[in-house]
Amino acid sequence: MNVFVINSGSSSIKYQLISMPEAKVLCSGLVDRIGQEGSKVEHKSFLPQGEVKKVLEIPVPHHSVGLTEVASLLTNAEVGVISDPSQVEVVGHRVVHGGEKFASTQVITPEIKAKIKALFPLAPLHNPANYLGIEVAESIFPHARQIAVFDTAFHQSMPAQAYRMSIPNDLYVNHGIRAYGFHGTSHKYVSERAGEYLQKSDSKVITIHLGNGCSMAAVEGGKCMDTSMGLGPMNGLIMGTRAGDIDQSVIFYLVRELGYSLDEVNNLLNKKSGMLGLTGFSDMRDIGKLYHQGQPEAILAYQLYAYRIKKYIGSFAAAMNGLDAIVFTGGVGENDQLTRTFVCEKMDFLGIQLDPEKNKLPNTGLRAIQTDASSVQILVIPTNEELEIARQCFGIED
Ligand SMILES: Nc1ncnc2c1ncn2[C@@H]1O[C@H](COP(=O)(O)OP(=O)(O)O)[C@@H](O)[C@H]1O
Ligand SMILES: CC(=O)OP(=O)(O)O
Ligand SMILES: [Mg+2]
Fold it and tell me: What is one Gene Ontology biological process annotated in the Swiss-Prot or TrEMBL record (predicted)?
């Protein structure tokens, strides 16, 4: 069964065509900078004769243009891996917010689409792009079953003490205001890999997903017990452009004293804050270069970014009453040695001791980077949200 997995972001689409159940990746790629200057499609096909790459530097004004280009690459004479779009039997969509309705993968129906749409205000950077991806895929692959895999699903196992907020009960009961958590597909995938590696069914693991969006999860015996994101994917860790946890007073001050509208506050905290607000850059590679040049803002930004992660490690270890492993994943977690160094510094009281040499190992797969004396394992595990989505799609089709 061919599953085409689409991970639509606000300005990018990541995709993979995966043949299940053997989990063979036929092709993969990225449509980047949608609606901006310099947009492009980077495509890789895994053909019998080897890997073939194709880069299209073309205007991609919106998601439908990007997905139409990708669909034609699937059947392209040079890099194509199928002969007709009807050979895609399932399209698996990453949908960021599923609210309290969806603890599992769903076949997309008009009702499901309406629910995804109703959650736009809670995930304004993500759900609209996910919805658009579904509509475009329905027109390009009309014969395929469209399936949604929700970022929130893995976190539905959290106990009430982790997801409820200390505000009047009515706001939860009648309006669903609670913590939901995100990046669940990634936290699930890497925590399962960690559990297999540790060979311990009741393992206590903290997963640290550091991409453009960043979040952490406390996972005990394979179940999520707590996570750093909440009602929407804004709070918790410092991210590329999002502030993460912030004192509520700041919002009132911005509105009452500095004349911000609520939309402007939302835009500030989602798109202009985080590492971008601290350094002028959101991409960790740029900030890493500035750090090595000794730029004070970049040094402070690294300190803040890591300090927030350390605080969550401490609180999640306390919440689980123990810790077997911490897992770094996502573009930054997998690749940035400096972030891992900062995070693990002065954590030996918890049994976390990084081996600086092992920390330099290339990102070629799962690796353990702690010293022999470290009682907590420090793992780097490349995430694979697309494979996890394909598995879940196959699971409900099977
Ligand atoms: N070699 C690297 N060193 C440091 N940071 C990296 C490296 N490669 C990617 N990153 C960072 O990873 C982040 C993107 O991560 P990714 O998981 O792809 O994000 P998302 O899926 O949220 O778009 C960017 O901040 C980027 O700078
Ligand atoms: C939920 C979320 O923050 O996703 P991303 O990291 O892809 O922006
Ligand atoms: Mg991501």
Answer: acetyl-CoA biosynthetic process
Ligand 2 centroid distance, CA of 46 (Å): 27
Taking the centre of ligand 2 as the mean of its atom positions, its distance from the CA of residue 327, in whole angstroms, is: 18
Ligand 2 cavity residues, CB under 6 Å = 9, 96, 126, 151, 182-183, 211-213, 233
Q: Would the CB of 333 count as within 6 Å of ligand 1?
A: no
pLDDT (0 to 100) of residue 161: 98
Ligand 1, atom nearest to 7 Cα:
21
According to DSSP, the β-strands at 223-227 and 214-220 are antiparallel
What's the CATH number where 58 sits?
3.30.420.40
**238, 376: one domain:** yes
Residue 247 shares a structural domain with residue 340: yes
Q: Is the pLDDT of residue 396 over 60?
A: yes
Provide the pLDDT for residue 397.
Answer: 63
Range of the domain at 86: 2-150
**Active site annotation includes 151:** yes
| Distance (Å, whole) CA 337 – CA 358 | 10
Number of alpha carbons in the 13 Å side-chain half-sphere of residue 363: 14
For the beta carbon of residue 197, count every other beta carbon within 10 angstroms. Answer: 17
Which member of 151, 226, 324, 336 is catalytic? 151
pLDDT in tens, 68-90: 999 999 999 999 999 999 999 99
Residue 277 lies in a domain: yes
Mean pLDDT of 270-297: 97
Mean local confidence (pLDDT), 207-216: 96
- pLDDT for residue 76: 94
Number of folded domains that form the chain: 2
